[in-house]
Amino acid sequence: MYSLDARKPRADETTSAGVGADGPDIAYSARDVSKVFYAPDRSVTALDGVSLDVEAGSFTCIVGPSGCGKSTLLRILGGLEQATIGQVTAPERKSAVPVSAFVFQEHGVFPWFTVLENVAFGLRMAGFSREERNATARTWLEYVGLSEFANSYPHQLSGGMKQRTAIARAFATGSPCLLMDEPLGALDAQTRRLMQEQLIELWERERKTVVLVTHAIEEALLLGDRIILMSARPGQIKEDIKVPFDHPRNIDIESTPEFADMKHNIWESLRDEVQKSVVFS
Ligand SMILES: Nc1ncnc2c1ncn2[C@@H]1O[C@H](COP(=O)(O)OP(=O)(O)OP(=O)(O)O)[C@@H](O)[C@H]1O
């Protein structure tokens, strides 16, 4: 459990660090990480020798075929799962606010809490007063356009509104790093577009360290500054791609030839891996 130290974290504790004199700060670092899931009948090697440095304040997307270990890698970075072999380092926790906040594809909100209580939950766990956490939660509800629904319960919301609540909570908690596993995967196409735009805006406002798992190449190109392309299981890093589009960014970049080229090249590289994963899984 967290210690209930009800002070507001200092700015240097809650925002991602930038570029220091010795180069960029590294938020997460994985060195030769392998993960084997053991079961009585068979063991599964999910990751094999993955090494990765994630810069503080960067937006990294992980793309790869189904079952290649994307979620496992994210969970290992966030400390939810342990590597079988290899080392992982994450930013040091300096306050009651957890270093990593998670957003999953579904089930990210507590059905028995109102929208406001859901968004304020992380702050409550970190020991903030009711007044402070409600004020912060209301600000974030405004950013994601859910102010009117502060007192609604999740069953009264659409899927997109529930995901906005989960994303608002992750940002509101004040964690410097957000780990998102297909956060928009369950949404319909139109809502997904709006949420992509909103995620870009929120990230540009906060510049937190984000690692986001997605199946969609377009989404990774639109949101990320870097794409980690993984091979079929056992997951290894096949390519480490720099996304060259500037910020502030919007969905218009999708109509540029550069976007189309990158999308094509990434798909060419991913296609073999997808085929392997379909054959062997
Ligand atoms: N707790 C577990 N116990 C046993 N095997 C697991 C466990 N978690 C994941 N695996 C296996 O590890 C491999 C990688 O799973 P993981 O969920 O990380 O892949 P993924 O790339 O995120 O997949 P998807 O894109 O389909 O969500 C899969 O073969 C999966 O079956």
Automatic annotation (TrEMBL):
Methyltransferase is among the record's keywords: no
Superkingdom of the source species: Bacteria
InterPro entries assigned: AAA+_ATPase (IPR003593), ABC_transporter-like_ATP-bd (IPR003439), ABC_transporter_ATP-bind (IPR050166), P-loop_NTPase (IPR027417)
Domain ABC transporter: 28-257
Lineage: Bacteria, Bacillati, Actinomycetota, Actinomycetes, Streptosporangiales
Species this chain originates from: Actinomadura alba
Keyword annotations: ATP-binding, Nucleotide-binding, Transport
Molecular functions (GO terms): ATP binding
Pfam families hit by this protein: ABC_tran
Protein's UniProt name: ABC transporter ATP-binding protein
